[in-house]
Amino acid sequence: MEKKAMFYEIKGEKIHCFLCPHNCHIGENQFGLCGVRTNKDMELKTINYGEIASANQDPIEKKPLFHFKPGTLILSVGSFGCNFACGFCQNYSISQERPKSEFVEPKKLADTTANLDNNTGIAFTYNEPTIWYEYVYDVAKDLKENYEDIKVVLVTDGYITKEALEKLMPYVDAMNIDLKGFSEEYYKKICRGSLKPVMETIEYAAKHCHVEITTLLVSSLNDSLEEVEEISKFLAQINKNIPLHLSRYFPTYKMNLPATEINTILEAQKRAQEHLNYVFVGNVPNMDNSTYCPKCKELLIDRQNMMAQVYITDTECPTCGYEIEVVL
């Protein structure tokens, strides 16, 4: 569905969209880099409002979120379009193409989310929720105004302007932010974006909601121990309790580099653990991704195959009293 977009201004014969840091200047009947925001008669329109291309109820651990409502299920929905163009995108069929979609009114999605059995909330994921902004905002606002206990989650690349993020944050409970690497060169060449705005999003979001970080380690591109250490130090300066998920890359979409060596992932985990309390490994079978107390090593949350058994009832370790930053 087409709908008038937010965060734009008219500049001469073009529209300046400032939803994300690309700051596209869009001519008549042209689209921004995201592929879903277009200039129609000098008015910015979004073409994916309410268009749902994928929907599933999943364990929240699949987002991945390990320290937010562990052991619960969450409704996950996505549309189409993205403001990055990562060559390794696992969801390229909806992020880089125009798939079949179904229009759902925001009120209907909010009510469905709230009334779904054994459901903790909604996660906007699969494609980039930033460029689905107007719909995400309307659904999240409705949920928080009418079902305050229902949680709102964003799984995002973090490429959003501060003005847009500030408007949305009162209605967001948790974010998993992709920190795709730690160099401007990598972001520019591989993702067609830039690093600094993502860092700023992480810093801001960590002050206002629960945040976890995912980094896909791609063979020979961003999997050096030095880069992993830079990422870990950056996060530790914000909060050493931010969970970091180091995920193994496999060839997909436009990238045919070999899969990241498992030993590389494990060494990266060890290096990151020198700075962060919680570092998990993704896309590697038979890994122990349970949560242990950083102080006494007591098992707090046991995870097997994306299912969690929670052994704590509050935010303190039952053995030593160490404060555990987890939302139960």
Automatic annotation (TrEMBL):
The gene is amrS. Residues 67-288 form the Radical SAM core domain. This is AmmeMemoRadiSam system radical SAM enzyme. Its cofactor is [4Fe-4S] cluster. Gene3D superfamilies: Aldolase class I. One of its GO terms (molecular function) is catalytic activity. It comes from Anaeromicrobium sediminis. Binds 1 [4Fe-4S] cluster. The cluster is coordinated with 3 cysteines and an exchangeable S-adenosyl-L-methionine. Keywords: 4Fe-4S, Iron, Iron-sulfur, Metal-binding, S-adenosyl-L-methionine. Pfam families: Radical_SAM (PF04055). PROSITE patterns: RADICAL_SAM. [4Fe-4S] cluster binds at C82, C86, C89. InterPro entries: Aldolase_TIM, AmmeMemoSam_rS, Elp3/MiaA/NifB-like_rSAM, Organic_radical-activating, Pyrv-formate_lyase-activ_prd, rSAM, rSAM_sf. It comes from the Bacteria.
